[in-house]
């Protein structure tokens, strides 16, 4: 299944956007975004170093949020009081402050400008060698010294759009630089906290999906934002009956089950999902009272592996994920389970890292909380 949605349904409740992504009518992803948020990924701050953590090769930076941000450092740690421009790469979560980077990235539809980076890279989603070479050459001609560029998949459709957007991103960077020079830390100098913009940036990639909203003003705002940020005018439908959009598309029951901790499998087995601030644990069980035959455990694990890939995407589970499958002694059977799991996470918009089996027989993986700013995906 392709990871690109062709239809996005959006409802707004209590200042929160809830979007359901569909491919040919099938729900593949559910996203929740606040209409406004502080410290959103991509936001750029001018901060001040509060303290150093040499053992972690990091420093804590005051950027004006509730908790100091963590900045990983290569090389010598900056001294306390040092003023640093940083960009949020991972929003604050639970009791953890935001993670920030000094590697700044400005994202557009066709490209990502790395104003303090170097080199040219092409999205991993562009797999054809001829297309990769064409875009690599085009970006190399457009790149200026002492800057980096990442070409996104949408650039396959328009080299002219790529050039125009890179120039627009340079203009944005000029404005940010001027703001940085005259701003006293801690302060935000570039805010990506608009939930509608984040939602559109998430789904408008190479193709422009069709959108349906349950609110006319929200739909008009989405159209204006898409035209301003990406230069596209998406097809937008407005649901006439408030609160009926998801039901009309037949996904209301699916959405209602997203927060249920236990999922039944066709064989009678089940998944139990428990989320904490540090890790998400998924326990796989066989049906109660069922004798575990030679292939019963494998059958349950294969069903569970496919469902795990679907559930972590629907629930937008991020961070470390540990799956306790039914124990299999046969290495070949474990390989089959891992292969199904790999296929199940392949359509995910976020690249899931499969770390493999631990010594205790658990399967460990990492799904970053949101696509990394300036990533190659």
Summarize the structure.
The protein is built from eight helices and 21 strands.
Characterization of the model:
With 377 residues, the protein is an alpha+beta fold. The protein has four domains: 7-36 and 194-253, Nucleotidyltransferase, domain 5; 44-103, Nucleic acid-binding proteins (OB fold (Dihydrolipoamide Acetyltransferase, E2P)); 106-179, no CATH class; 257-367, Aminopeptidase. Helix content is 28%, strand content 29%. The chain is built from eight helices and 21 strands. It has helices spanning 129-142, 159-181, 195-203, 216-230, 245-248, 252-256, 296-314, 331-345; strands at 7-13, 16-23, 26-34, 44-53, 58-62, 69-72, 83-90, 99-101, 106-107, 111-114, 120-122, 148-151, 187-190, 210-213, 236-238, 262-264, 270-275, 279-285, 319-324, 353-357, 363-367. The strands form four sheets. It has a six-stranded mixed beta sheet, covered by helices on one side. A five-stranded mixed beta sheet has the order 3-2-1-14-15. Strands 4-5-6-8-7 form a five-stranded mixed β-barrel. α1 (129-142) packs across α2 (159-181). The longest helix has 23 residues, at 159-181. The protein is globular, with a radius of gyration of 22 Å.
């Amino acid at each position: 299944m392709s990871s690109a949605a062709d239809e996005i349904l959006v409802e707004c409740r209590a200042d929160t956007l809830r979007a359901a992504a569909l491919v040919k009518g099938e729900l593949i992803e559910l996203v929740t975004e606040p209409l406004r948020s502080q410290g959103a990924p991509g936001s750029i701050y001018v901060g001040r170093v509060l303290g150093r953590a040499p053992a972690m090769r990091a420093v804590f930076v005051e950027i004006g949020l509730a908790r100091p941000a963590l900045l990983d450092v290569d090389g010598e740690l900056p001294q306390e009081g040092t003023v640093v421009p940083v960009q949020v790469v991972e929003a604050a979560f639970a009791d953890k402050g935001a993670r920030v980077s000094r590697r700044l990235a400005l994202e557009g539809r066709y490209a990502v400008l790395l104003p303090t980076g170097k080199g040219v890279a092409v999205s991993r989603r562009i797999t054809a060698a001829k297309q990769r070479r064409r875009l690599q050459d085009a970006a190399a001609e457009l790149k200026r010294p002492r800057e980096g560029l990442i070409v996104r998949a949408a650039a396959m459709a328009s080299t002219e759009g790529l050039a125009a957007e890179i120039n627009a991103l340079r203009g944005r960077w000029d404005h940010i630089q001027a703001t940085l020079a005259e701003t006293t830390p801690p302060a935000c100098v570039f805010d990506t906290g608009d939930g509608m913009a984040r939602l559109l940036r998430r789904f408008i990639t190479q193709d422009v999906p069709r959108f349906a909203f349950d609110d006319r003003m929200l739909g008009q705002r989405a159209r204006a934002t898409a035209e301003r940020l990406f230069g596209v005018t998406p097809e937008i439908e407005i649901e006439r009956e408030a609160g009926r959009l998801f039901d009309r598309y037949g996904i209301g029951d699916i959405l209602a089950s997203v927060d249920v901790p236990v999922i039944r499998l066709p064989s009678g087995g089940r998944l139990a999902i428990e989320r904490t601030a540090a890790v998400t644990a998924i326990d796989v069980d066989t049906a109660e009272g069922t004798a575990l035959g030679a292939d019963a455990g494998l059958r349950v694990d294969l069903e569970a592996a496919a469902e795990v890939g679907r559930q972590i995407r629907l629930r937008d589970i991020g961070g470390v994920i540990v799956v306790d499958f039914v124990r299999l002694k046969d290495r070949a059977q474990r390989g089959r389970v891992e292969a199904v799991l790999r296929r199940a996470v392949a359509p995910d918009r976020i690249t899931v890292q499969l770390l493999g089996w631990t010594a205790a027989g658990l399967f460990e993986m990492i799904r970053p909380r949101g696509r990394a700013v300036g990533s190659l995906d």
